[in-house]
Amino acid sequence: MFRILLSAFLLTSITYMSYVEACPRCGNVEVPYPLSTRDGCGDSRYKIYCNNGVLEFMSAEGFYYRILSIDSFASRLVLSPPLIQSHSCSSSDLGVGGVRLDGGSPFNISTRNTIMLFNCSANILLSPLNCSSNSFCRKFEALDVESGCKDTLCCHYLKDSSMNSHKIRVRFGGCTAYTSVIDVRPNDPAEAWNYGIELQWAAPHL
Ligand SMILES: *[C@@H]1O[C@H](CO)[C@@H](O)[C@H](O)[C@H]1NC(C)=O
Ligand SMILES: *[C@@H]1O[C@H](CO)[C@@H](O)[C@H](O)[C@H]1NC(C)=O
Ligand SMILES: *[C@@H]1O[C@H](CO)[C@@H](O)[C@H](O)[C@H]1NC(C)=O
């Protein structure tokens, strides 16, 4: 009886161990559990990609965003905001409508993101956006003189719990470019902003 229990115990420990195995490094970046770059490591629901030594996240539309950092203790990772094409005012993911996460995804867009939208059309101003002359987006415009978003109608909003936590939308006839800054404080100079789209993930059920 004892032997059966012992071997059952060993078997479950071995299964458990292989289940929680973290994926190998990508380039020189650690890939903490539950993130998974391939079959057989991590948890497949937390799929990310290792492309030529660069970690990337794929949106529901199939657009890839570079992962800038991962904080496994806080269950957060930071994506690089898409480039804004120079001399126009469009984000590189405008064609797919911005970033959208799958409804069933364990990831969501954290409430620490302040989203800035550019080249907006006047009919979107009803929503809870700050499009005033002292909106954060004006500081961005003042810095990023190349972007082609200068002097367009722009707005910002905090991605708080009243906002959709699975997408940041851009489109023709709405706003055509965006960026995101994590944990903005009103008195921070724009030069010190921490650009990124911060995602958080729900803990895996073991
Ligand atoms: C818009 O945002 C700026 C910067 O945070 C703030 O000073 C201002 O009071 C806000 N305006 C409105 C109408 O919420
Ligand atoms: C701003 O958006 C409109 C469509 O909503 C587009 O036609 C125009 O080219 C955009 N402006 C810039 C500078 O990209
Ligand atoms: C986003 O995910 C975190 C972690 O699972 C969760 O605590 C939070 O409530 C989620 N936020 C929203 C707005 O769904």
List unreliable stretches of 5+ residues.
1-15
SSE topology string? HEEEEEEEEEHEEEE
> What is the distance, rounded to the nearest whole angstrom, between the alpha carbons of the first and last residues?
27 Å
Compute the number of strand runs: 13
Bound molecules: 2-acetamido-2-deoxy-beta-D-glucopyranose
Based on helices, strands and strand pairing, what is the structural class? alpha+beta
What spatial order of strands do you see in the largest sheet?
3-4-5-6-13-8
Question: Could you characterize what this model shows?
Answer:
- This protein is about 15% helix and about 30% strand.
- By secondary structure, the chain is α+β, with helices and mostly antiparallel strands.
- It has one domain.
- The longest helix has 18 residues, at about 1-20.
- It is elongated, with a radius of gyration of 20 Å.
- Bound molecules: 2-acetamido-2-deoxy-beta-D-glucopyranose (NAG) (3 copies).
- The site of one 2-acetamido-2-deoxy-beta-D-glucopyranose has 5 residues, from loops.
- One 2-acetamido-2-deoxy-beta-D-glucopyranose binds near residues 130, 132 and 136.
- One of its GO terms (molecular function) is polysaccharide binding.
- This is Wall-associated receptor kinase galacturonan-binding domain-containing protein.
- It holds the Pfam family GUB_WAK_bind.
- One of its GO terms (cellular component) is membrane.
